[in-house]
Automatic annotation (TrEMBL):
Taxonomy, superkingdom: Eukaryota
Database matches in Pfam families: NFACT-R_1
Protein family per UniProt: Belongs to the CCDC25 family.
Organism of derivation: Hohenbuehelia grisea
Name the UniProt record assigns to this protein: NFACT RNA-binding domain-containing protein
InterPro entries reported in the protein's UniProt record: Jlp2/Ccd25, NFACT_RNA-bd
Residues annotated as domain NFACT RNA-binding: 1-98
Amino acid sequence: MVLFFTSTAVSPSAIIYMGKDKVENEDLIKYAWPQDVWFHVDKLSSAHVYLRMPEGMAWEAIPEVLLNDCAQLVKANSIEGNKKDNLTIIYTPGDNLKVCDRRCGGNGWLVMKLNI
């Protein structure tokens, strides 16, 4: 079951969605819209959180309050990450994502980092 959230930190409000497990996370990667932005705890397991970008917003210019909503949600849904005081959240547009096995190696994504 995909979980949906509404962030009212911005106007108009933004839709955020999240997978509940690994299988669902892989399905979300396959069906993400190119303009969706994916969030994940760097170097730890965590939920995959997606921001459905509001019309006219560039991913490089997401307001800090909205970044914080997504970052806090991904941190809260990381078994190890939610116990840490300081960690890095990575995010990238959905069209940079692909499902692959462990043999893929480096991802080559354009990734932004956010320390929370």
